[in-house]
Specification:
The chain is of the alpha/beta class. The protein contains 16 helices and 27 strands. It has three domains: 287 residues, 4-Layer Sandwich (Metallo-beta-lactamase, Chain A), CATH 3.60.15.10; 153 residues, 3-Layer(aba) Sandwich (Rossmann fold), CATH 3.40.50.10710; 90 residues, Roll (Ubiquitin-like (UB roll)). 33% of the residues lie in helices and 23% in strands.
């Protein structure tokens, strides 16, 4: 009897778990699970761009294995804003589990467009349910109160999220800055944050990517002051690049266009470009997301027209990778509408993000070879709208959390965020730095000393392939790019197993054959000796011989050249 009572007491204790599946010690791919009494809330589901070494990989998304195994406990996925690093893994997630989506209105519209496009491109039937929430909503999901609060970020409608537990809210900051002068749609709601803080906050999950930057991010994020004099001095056409999902920056460019009596062309070359999408969404809702006077809007057909062209601002928008490919295409003359000339002023206002360094560098170098007047705004000159040190201090002061958990950033950013938390008198032992797959567990509001872990691996997307590109494939691609490939073709009689044709050796990216004939002869000799063993040993399978050829040829080539090409032996039985 006593034991049963003890068991009941133990079972009644509240358990809260925080489980990052992506976003920790990396830039992008945000995905966090907050578990309250066995109910799992997913907050954000994004991708990141691959490192240069991940040859051929388009994007990287989190692993959903944990969510698949616990699908019956997943009650919601909440998307905080309309950026790819927090929402673009959703299509893949929804193919894996059935879960309702909650998002602010604009974010929900962008999600809907993305999912429709994904279904069409992949010829899929993808069922989903999106609930649109107000930015300062208070709702109940699976009997658990969930609060939303507006934050200031580079796209309108951005929110943070607070999930209630008996021992206080678990607050997810979202991506934010403190800017009390932000325009409507971008404005934060300090009052709502303070209300949440007064009710009690158990843990604050706070973004970290800019935590090494001193002061406030505002006004260093603003483009206007950096471009005003360029707009004033430019006599010809202005072409400016800006990431499609940075709508705050789009708004600034619109205002500058208006100020200097110019007309703007929204030149997102991808019809699914977010700038174009947001303009379309505004038209559908008959309520503009950002105010763009009709009289300043021009069209791609106006580019090149006399008496019009020199007065245009061409906003070249797109994704971080697409935008630099578009620049190169324009320079190479591959764009039928837009050709650069010496009167053009070209402004690169799309700072390089991790994973795009190579293509961005190439595009910028090629730009400087043109006759256009080039202005490149570097990362240090143009801050992204993420929280710097004083922004973080403000949000800590508002929420007054018992525990502080740095999220979204590299490890160095977490350490910097830890220092900020300690300066705000949060105890060292109350700061939880975790990696993807690590689990922070709170029992009755107290952080436990142990750290459970789950296995999480990056899932690489290559074209339409999901997860079928692993480290071995990447290693092969690197090997191919470094040392090339050797293909060996040996033709044998299927009955007698005699070699009945000249052994063929083809190479790509390996050696210049004319200067290395002895190597080719050596490869042929080794291959034919290995194949001859098949005649002497009838039980010997072709697959075994191919492996022997591969091993011996690799060893020979490495000794003779120091290279390690991919060796592909082929035995053709006729």
């Amino acid at each position: 009897m006593t034991n049963n009572i003890i068991m009941e007491v133990k079972m009644s204790k509240e358990s809260v778990k925080i489980i990052p599946l992506g976003g920790q010690a990396e830039m992008g791919k945000s995905m966090y699970c907050i578990e309250v009494n066995e109910k799992i809330f997913i907050i954000d589901a994004g991708f990141r761009f691959p490192e240069v070494s991940k040859l051929g990989v388009d994007i990287i998304i989190p692993s959903f294995d944990f969510l698949k195994e616990n699908e019956d406990r997943v009650v919601a996925v909440i998307i905080t804003h309309g950026h790819d690093d927090v929402m673009a893994a959703l299509p893949y997630l929804l193919e894996t589990i059935d879960v309702p989506i909650y998002a602010p209105a604009l974010t929900a519209d962008l999600i809907e467009q993305m999912l429709k496009r994904y279904k069409k491109q992949n010829n899929l039937k993808l069922n989903y349910n999106i609930t649109r929430v107000k930015r300062n909503d208070s709702i109940i999901i699976s009997d658990i109160p969930v609060e939303f609060f507006p934050v200031t970020h580079s796209i309108p409608g951005s929110v943070g999220v607070a999930i209630w537990s008996e021992n206080g809210y678990i607050v997810y900051s979202g991506e934010f800055i403190i800017d009390f002068g932000a325009p409507e749609g971008f404005r934060c709601d300090i009052q709502k944050m303070m209300e949440i803080g007064k009710k009690g906050v158990l843990a604050l999950l706070c973004e970290s990517s800019y935590s090494k930057n001193s002061g406030y991010t505002s006004p260093k994020h603003k483009l206007t002051d950096k471009l005003d004099h360029i707009f004033e001095d430019s006599e010809g056409r202005i072409i400016i690049t800006s990431y499609a999902q940075n709508i705050f920056r789009t708004k600034e460019i619109v205002e500058l266009t208006k100020k200097y009596g110019r007309k703007i062309v929204f030149y997102g070359r991808d019809k699914y470009d977010s700038t174009n999408s947001i303009v379309r969404i505004g038209q559908q809702l008959k309520k503009a997301v950002i105010e763009i006077p009709k009289e300043i809007i021009a069209f791609s057909t106006d580019i090149g027209k006399k008496n019009v062209d020199d007065n245009l601002v061409v906003l070249l928008s797109g994704t971080p990778q697409r935008i630099y490919h578009d620049i190169l295409d324009i320079i190479d003359g591959g764009d039928e509408s837009l050709k650069l000339n010496e009167n053009d002023t070209f402004i690169v206002a799309s700072p390089v993000i991790p994973g795009t360094e190579k293509i961005a560098n190439k595009a910028i170098n090629e730009l400087y070879k043109t006759d256009a007047n080039i202005h490149v705004l570097k990362n240090k000159e143009l801050c992204s709208m993420h929280a710097s040190q004083e922004d973080i201090k403000v949000i800590i002061q508002i929420f007054k959390p018992k525990y502080f958990i740095p999220i979204k950033g590299e490890y160095q950013h977490f350490i910097s965020n830890l220092d900020i938390a300690r300066s705000m008198e949060i105890a060292f032992e109350n700061v939880g730095i975790i990696d993807n797959g690590e689990i922070l567990t709170f029992i009755d509001g107290k952080l436990q000393d142990y750290r459970d872990t789950i296995e999480v691996e990056d899932v690489m997307i290559d074209g339409i392939g999901v997860g079928d590109v692993g480290d071995k494939v990447i290693d092969d691609r690197i090997q191919l790019s470094n040392d090339g490939v050797v293909v060996i073709g040996v033709t044998i009689d299927s009955q007698s197993r005699d070699i009945i044709a000249n052994t063929d050796v083809q190479t790509r990216g390996f050696v210049y054959l004319r200067d290395s004939e002895y190597i080719i002869k050596g490869i042929i000799e080794i291959s034919e000796k290995c194949v001859a063993e098949m005649k002497n040993n009838p039980k010997l399978e072709a697959i075994e011989v191919r492996q022997t050829i591969k091993d011996k040829v690799n060893k020979y080539i490495s000794k003779e050249t120091g290279k390690k090409p991919v060796v592909l032996p082929i035995i053709i039985e006729v």
